[in-house]
User: Fold this.
Amino acid sequence: MKELQDLARTLLSDGTVQVVIGWEDGPTGARPVFVTSPEGADKLIFDTRCVHNLATFLSPRRSHVARLGKAAVVVKGCDARAVAMLLRESQIKREDIVLIGVRCGGVQKDPASKEPLTAATVADKCTGCDVREPHLADHVVGELPQAPPNDDARERFIEELSAMPASERWEFWQTAFARCVRCNACREVCPLCTCERCIVDKTQPRWIEPSAHPAAIMAWQITRAQHHAGRCSDCGECARVCPAGIPLDVLNREMARILQIRFDYTATDDPEAPAPLGAFRTDDGQEFIR
Amino acid sequence: MNVYEPYLMTIDDVIDETADTRTLRLRFQDESVAESFDFRAGQFGEYSAFGAGECTFCIASPPTRRGYLECTFKSAGKVTSALRDLNPGDTVGFRGPYGNHFPLNEMEGKDLVFIAGGIGLAPVRCVIWNVLDQRDKYGKVTIVYGARSVGDLCYKRELQEWSERDDVTLWQTVDPGGETPEWKGEVGFVPTVLEKAAPSAETACAVLCGPPIMIKLTLPTLKKLGFEDDAIYTTLENRMKCGIGKCGRCNIGHVYVCVDGPVFTAAQLAALPPEY
Amino acid sequence: MSETRFITTQALAELTAELLAAGTRVVAPAEAADGAVDYQVISNAKDVVLDERMPRRSLRGFFQPPTEQVFTWNRTDSGFSLKPVDLSTEPWVVLGARPCDAAGAAAIDAVMNGEPKDDLWMRRRETVTVIGLACAAMGPGCFCELVGKGPADTTGSDILLRPAQGGYIVEIVTPRGQAFVEAHSAKFTSTDAEVQAPPKRYDPAPMDRIEAWLEANFNDEFWQELSLRCLGCGTCTSICPTCYCFDIVDEPVGTSAGARRRNWDTCQVGLFTLHASGHNPRPEQTNRCRQRIMHKFYIYPHRHDILLCTGCGRCVVACPTGVNLPEILTGIAGRAGEDTTMGGPA
Amino acid sequence: METNTPQPAGTFEPRMVAFVCNWCTYTGADLAGTSRLTMEPNVRIVRLPCTGRIDPLFILKALERGADGVIVSGCHPGDCHYTSGNYHARRRFAVFHDLLQFLGFEEDRLTFSWVSASEGMKWKDIVDDAVARVRALGPFRGYDREAVAGSELAGRAA
Assistant:
């Protein structure tokens, strides 16, 4: 923690950056904080409650944050994947940001949790983590903790769903989607929803109706998942924010699995990696085409 | 009938004002509504293009001419484009009248200065005709109207009519570069022409409507001519959905444009937070 | 009206079953498919959950559904027809409304019942009997006392149930509540049971001073600080018992028919105020965060003399980045020069 | 496509939309017509320049507007008029197809095919088969908008 605070203090006092985006201990658990003066660096923390993906504050849509000036962002190894995607899609420039990587041994499902990290409390995204040591960062701080406890509940759930007859799967998703109120919170928190005008906000023509009826909800959820295929960094913020508790991360995770199986692609923190849906192979599988 | 259910109206006439601005003349389909419908100059309505949605415009025709309503709009979004695609005989919806109005009673006996830019003439035109239809109640009438180019001037036939009247002083202007070889009016921005027209501010009111930049630059000129802030009236627009103070989006501070406006004095505007 | 009665847990379940048997629509907290508690239309009295779990979303959706039809229209060769939605509503019951949710709906009445009356909202309000349930414990985000309410506040309830040994002490709040108890008098007994003092966490904040500060400080740097961590997701507004802003949209089916619908909307997204010209009076998250606080604690009280917040605390828990209303209110109170000893979470 | 007009019971005829590329399948379908092949009349064709232009949103929109099934067809791999449009489309369709499968969507309502300009017979077979499969499934009710629109949060939250 001191290492992180010292680094932030140095970056701010020597003018390398104007703001450090990290975590602080808020009234209800860890939360994002914007440190703009060296004195404020003492606020910075990193522990297992730091579940948020701070890369979302780098999105060009957040002009009120950009106004603060050049930013250093504290990222876990997994968050760096979202940064890599922003770089890959030319949403940000590498030289405009400083990345402070934190070595991470997993985070909680709930940033307010005071429980020790166990298989029951660990975030789904931490299962099978291979980026405890962040890449892409300009500075890496902290000791390398133990690997997070594995809880493959989400993976098992996906397998269970896949094994169901299609009609039961349809029923499951229809029930979950029926709670959707089309608030678009999943879009707003997403670090990779960078479109200046989202397809659901377009009215000429109106591709996706704004109401909360099944046709529109399905169209939105399918489109959201489709637009994130090969882009999603699996930070799980969409599922965490959903006021209706729709397991959107399950959908994203399944998309990742599809990309893995079909095109041997996994989410990466390499900003140079080719985008799977921007490329093709002449021998791509086409067993579903007649 | 719930509050969001519009009256049905038939398009009687379609008038193209400019390349992208159009006036619709509308008639209530229900005779009894047509007879009882009343409004005041400055009020607005929610116009429906069924299938596309609703859009907010002032009522551009004067309350002194009964039996029809007119609205003038520029094609900008989904609804205005859909309205533009309609033809005489088609059905549109109308909810209204909503909002406050210009205090024409208080203006009686006074000189009136109307200043408008571009499509901002629409709400002002409503007041102008209201005044001209009751001409003896008011003092001198001066109109300063500007647009980017000659092609962008709205209500061209009416401008002609006003220019021919003895009891109206009309100053027309276009931005530099917007004139044609035949153009007989002024060339220059509205504040400059207003200064040249130099209407007396004594026992006078100004009614001002146009793009934000024009309003911003014209207010100092009006002050220079001696107009007090509470003798200058303008009309605001904000995105609206309900028009009746329920949907929660058109407020500027604690003022809701749809119920407390759209007509404000410059003094009231100066007291509002800069969020419009 | 401060008459009290008693109803046993068993009698309450029987009463619920009777209401259902009579075809009355009953809304109460119940477990959703994913295990969380939501207010739902109940089909079996056994499903009602009257424990300490706060329903995930407020009651708002039952007075103003996320999507509701206003009218449908049809264009045929013989002309154009418009069919408004049927406004008739049978009497219905909300059982187990949290005091904050009951008060939230009552707060919204102020705007919806003003001229011209919003009949889509009021028809559901005018036909409902709200049976409130006082809270026996504070949830993680609760701050009802801070905004002058409390775990046993009766605002918006026709009857308030207060948990007691073996059942509930029944506080009759309104004539409608009185009528309801009389109609089911066999289920209620008289009582002299003591009412347990509700749990306490906060002292009330100086709302008048907060309102005055908000009115005077539209351009304070506070708004910039406050909005930085806000992602503009609007989750706070879609679970809120007092948020009511809506959008009206047309959804055509083909070219000759369609529906106009009213949907929930949120001040937290840019599209809310975006003009067709591209101009946006609230272009950044800073403007939108300010709007939310202003609306709840200055604009609405200024216009209707009611706070647009009942302290349910859902936004505190749900905010993905920890934006915290009690902290904001305390901060504003501090700025307003109040020597505050409001205390923090117990 | 117009609104769901009610049909007498037992006489369900699927409404189908085919999104096809201009260069191969459209020409193939044309050939089927000029060859006077008899096929199911339920399919309405929307012609696009290339399968690469076919956004999955088109398919969703067709279903929303009342289609009971959708056919997507274009040039065989290697034959794209624009060299690689169908290769890109194939990846997109693959992801879309697998996603729909995961959501439990009835697979038989959606047919992907490659039909070249000379394959009029294949087009007829694809159409007949797709229509038969959708006919067996019955109307697509998954998107029954009117069943829910205007109803309350109530009842669907369960």
